[in-house]
Task: structure prediction
Amino acid sequence: MIRLRGILASALVGAVVVASALGVLVAGDASARTAFQSSYTLEQNYSAALRMVRVDMGLKITEKDPDSAYIMFEYKSNESGQKVSSGAIELVPQESAVQVVVQLPQMPQYHEEVMATSLRRKLQQDYGDPPKRGEGREKDKKKKDAGADAAEGGADDGER
Result:
């Protein structure tokens, strides 16, 4: 009886380990992306991501487009030996932030998380605290304002 319990317990533990491993593989492929919100500008995010991938990580850039705000690259890790997999970083401007999406679909999700954390750290090191987006936009609006009150400041005095 005790021997039967030991065999059943071993089989159960083995089944749980196999199911967990399969679950991790399926879950890693199903999500296949890690995203975060960045308060830095689109240009700062793009520049930092490009430098991180090419210079810091030494990866090959396969395609990039600053206007569409994406970078595609060949990803290699110490774990995969010489195996190369595709990767991408996409930047999606939003009203008050930039959505940064890291995708390494052939790798476990923690690789994406490590890249995302590295990018956050690089942004902080390279640019310091993120700009206050609302204040910067208000200043830009005031500079571009050519309404009636702009003339009171003397902008048109020399043109007449």
User: Anything to note?
Assistant: The beta strands are 34-38, 60-65, 70-75, 85-93, 98-103. Residues 11-31, 136-145, 150-160 have pLDDT under 50 and may be disordered. The domain at 28-133 is CATH 3.30.530.50 (Alpha-D-Glucose-1,6-Bisphosphate; Chain A, domain 4).
